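Record C-type cytochrome, 134 aa.
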Amino acid sequence: MNRLTNNTLIAAVWTLAMLSAPAMAADTPPYKVADGNKVDAQTLSGWKTWRSMACERCHGAAQEGMVGPSLVNSLRVLSKEEFKTAVLKGRIEKGMPNFDTSKMVTENIDNLYAYLKGRSDGAIAPGRLQEMGK
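=>
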């Protein structure tokens, strides 16, 4: 194989790999769940953050909406970055306060996303959760 053909082939393989990587990563859920209510430690931490911040006051105990929108529906369309922006910066015009000054929320934003994404995906049941293996 000549050098030009070899370099073209390498470039094509690299491009294909780079284009496929985000799609493969997107298919891997950010949570682990068994039996609907047993989750990994990080997702459990997200659930505990949800409970501690009393998010159910606006979004409902099952995240299906009340005064605030259904997060079960919202996380079907929001990207992780859009979710983080909405939580941390708020949507003041819609009544959503910002939580970027809450240490618990800022330290657990990825875990909170994992929990709510699991609810949105239908993998995590509403209600009390427990850690896998305990």
